[in-house]
Specification:
The complex is a heterodimer of chains A (101) and B (194). Chain A is mainly α. Chain A contains 3 helices and no strands. Chain A is 77% helix and 0% strand. Chain B is built from 9 helices and no strands. In chain B, helix 1 runs antiparallel to helix 2 and helix 2 runs antiparallel to helix 3. The chains are: A mainly alpha (101), B mainly alpha (194). Chains A and B meet through helix 1, helix 2 and helix 3 of A and helix 1, helix 2, helix 3, helix 4 and helix 5 of B.
Amino acid sequence: MSIAPGFYLALAGMMFTIGAVGALVRRNAIVIFMFIELMLNAINLVFVTFARVHGNLDGQVLVFFVLVVAAAEVVVGLAIILVIARRRASANVDDVSLLRW
Amino acid sequence: MALEYAVFGAVFVVALGSSLAMLFARNAVHAALFLVATQVALAVAFLLQGAFFVAAIQIILYAGAIMVLFLFVIMLLGVDRREALTEPLPGQRPLAIGLGALLAAQILYVAYRGVELAVPGGGDGAGAITELNRDPGNVRAVARLLFGNYILPFEATSILLVVAIVGVMVLARRIGSIEAAASGAGSPATEEAA
């Protein structure tokens, strides 16, 4: 572990940014979900890096909670996408504009 | 030491390259496979920092279970459907990229200062992690924390999972079968078809 933690933080930050931009730019609901997963993964890397900085394992334990929340969120989100796709035959987020003013 | 730098360089290139490739992949399946590559690279980054159990779970749960779920839904909705290229909100894409650049600048600044800000004096606990991985072992130490200090959040996640399962089962039912079941008029044959 001779590489400075800052490099890992920089990697995680860039991945988080790519995830945020992707979630804003893409149109397919499933792909947007993948970018949210990418952001959560970047956060996991930050947790592990700071666990190493502090020299205890609390950050590594928190990764599990992020993982469980990610799994639950993906399952519910994909079910919602499935229901929408069943009604409108597309997973495009622009088609779901009924509540837009 | 040189090997560690080489491995970290490979992780850096693969993780960033495949996340960028995700951004430009037109096909949803390609985006999913690039996400798998990113997650495997991140698992190697976890290994480099002594988080062995987290790395294994990352591969099994993220790259395995969750991505299979993604691919399953993509296949269910049809693979060959490409994204519409029309932009309903004018200027949203440049604005998103500009705000993303701003976010990247902020995050990189904080990452540059980060360890100093979080730990005054800028300590590095790599030695403590190595010691923990040697004496009780990584899995045992994580388990002690998870079932000791973090037992209450751990139980809360079980409630979260149960709620998610029940919610998905309610969502995924066909509306017709719910109405049929509510009115009691649905014959077993129509329920079977629904």
